[in-house]
């Protein structure tokens, strides 16, 4: 999107399958009331961003585009999406809502807010326009309504694709039944953020339980200033995988029963005020670490609550890939929390049972020895309030979800 004008976007290439060939670019920093000429003369595939196999670069054979930016920024709009909507409608009122979030994403301009009504949406949303400083594009649930993005029985791998965009916020959604797709640079999670900046992911709940192999909430790469706040990640292969994203922050989140690591962080990052629970019994017995870190000096671990199956002196929390000590590169090094405090940094993170609120209403006789095992079964539904901490020490230290942040999201 032009900083002071209309958006310009286009397709850069095609994948080997027709079902997902979208790529976009955005022009920023344009002057108001100015005529521009633009032509894409060449394109290069760095790596595919969706799980569609080898990519194919298509020659951009078209004449120069000419356009004139608006003389002033348009007034920010509120746009509506609902399961009873119609993409041919105006989208400007609840009664004339669009049907799909993806259509709203194709129409939104800097400063717009997309409000999504309660219901279930089976779709993949590609954010096509960039926001700007002071005029973000926001995707939010209507207060009090539960919005679920469903991966259609693990047929869809990603809910939101944010590629080459800035100042985008995704807030107040539930995700289920998305599959893990791709590997390495082509890996997919529920939300993919690539070559973007100033991205906010807030009050999101990813439930990866169920048949099949599920990924984590976030795959982030080559981006900056990405914030993940007050989110819940349940039973994915991991909670998130992030690389080369300076300014990355994850705070006030809850990680439940991850199948491998809770987080893979090959990036400077601040991890603070989270509750991170142990993985399944088999993975814990294999001592698979909670977090994989690229470089210990790039990570700030602050005021996190770790809930362990075994004593903290026995359980590996960190795997540091490029660990350095005493002027030597020691490479892959596993550490318990006491090891980390001694060899890396004197973090104030602790090992505690958060005493999630859900256990106040469950039959104590049916709660497993390690309470988190109760959540492996999808028969136990989970919502944000279920995972508010009640342990007085955890509450006092402000760890985990912030109940006050959910005052307008508790659902109907």
Task: Offer a quick outline of the entry.
The chain has about 400 residues and is mostly beta strands. Helices cover about 5% and strands about 30% of the residues. A hairpin with a 2-residue loop joins strand 29 and strand 30 (about 330-335).
Keywords:
mainly beta, 9-stranded parallel beta sheet, 4 helices, disordered N terminus, 412 residues, globular
Describe this structure in words.
The structure is a single chain. The protein has about 400 residues and is mainly beta. The chain has helices spanning about 100-105, 280-285, 335-345, 390-395; strands at about 15, 35-40, 55, 65-70, 80, 115, 120, 125, 135-140, 145-150, 160-165, 165-170, 175, 190-195, 195-200, 205, 220, 225-230, 230-235, 240-245, 250, 255, 265, 270, 275, 290-295, 300, 305, 320-325, 330-335, 350. A nine-stranded parallel sheet has the order 5-6-9-12-15-18-21-24-27, with helices on one face. A nine-stranded parallel sheet has the order 7-10-13-16-19-22-25-28-31, with no helix packed on it. The longest helix has 7 residues, at about 100-105. It is globular, with a radius of gyration of 22 Å.
């Amino acid at each position: 999107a032009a900083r002071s004008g209309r958006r310009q976007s286009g397709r850069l290439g095609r994948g080997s399958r027709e079902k997902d060939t979208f790529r976009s670019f955005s022009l920023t920093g344009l002057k108001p009331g100015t005529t521009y000429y633009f032509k894409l003369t060449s394109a290069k595939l760095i790596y595919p961003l969706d799980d569609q196999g080898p990519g194919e670069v298509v020659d951009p054979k078209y004449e120069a585009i000419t356009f004139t930016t608006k003389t002033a920024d348009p007034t920010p709009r509120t746009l509506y999406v609902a399961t009873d909507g119609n993409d041919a409608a105006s989208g400007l009122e609840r009664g004339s809502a669009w049907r799909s979030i993806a259509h709203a994403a194709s129409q939104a301009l800097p400063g717009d807010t997309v409000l999504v009504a309660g219901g279930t949406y089976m779709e993949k949303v590609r954010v096509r326009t960039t926001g700007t400083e002071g005029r973000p594009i926001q995707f939010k649930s209507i207060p009090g309504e539960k919005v679920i993005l469903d991966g259609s029985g693990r047929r869809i791998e990603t809910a939101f694709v944010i590629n080459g965009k800035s100042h985008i916020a995704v807030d107040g959604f539930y995700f289920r039944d998305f599959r893990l797709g791709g590997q390495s640079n082509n890996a997919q999670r529920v939300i993919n953020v690539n070559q973007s900046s100033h991205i906010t992911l807030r009050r999101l709940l990813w439930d990866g339980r169920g048949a099949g192999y599920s990924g984590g909430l976030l795959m982030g790469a080559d981006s900056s200033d990405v914030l993940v706040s007050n989110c819940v990640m349940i039973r994915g292969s991991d909670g998130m995988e992030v690389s080369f994203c300076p300014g990355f922050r994850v705070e006030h989140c809850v990680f439940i029963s991850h199948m491998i690591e809770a987080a893979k962080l090959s990036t400077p990052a601040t991890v603070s005020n989270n509750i991170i629970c142990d993985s399944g019994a088999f993975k814990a017995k294999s001592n698979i670490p909670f977090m994989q870190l690229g470089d210990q000096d790039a990570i700030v671990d602050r005021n996190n609550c770790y809930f362990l199956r075994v004593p903290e002196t026995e359980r590996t929390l960190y795997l540091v890939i490029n660990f350095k000590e005493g002027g030597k590169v020691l490479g892959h090094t596993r550490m318990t929390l006491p090891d980390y405090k001694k060899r890396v940094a004197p973090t104030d993170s602790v090992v505690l049972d958060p005493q999630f609120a859900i256990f106040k209403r469950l039959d104590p006789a049916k709660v497993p020895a390690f309470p988190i095992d109760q959540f492996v079964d999808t028969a136990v539904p989970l919502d944000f309030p279920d995972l508010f901490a009640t342990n007085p020490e955890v509450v006092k230290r402000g760890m985990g979800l912030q109940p006050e942040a959910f005052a307008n999201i508790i659902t109907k």
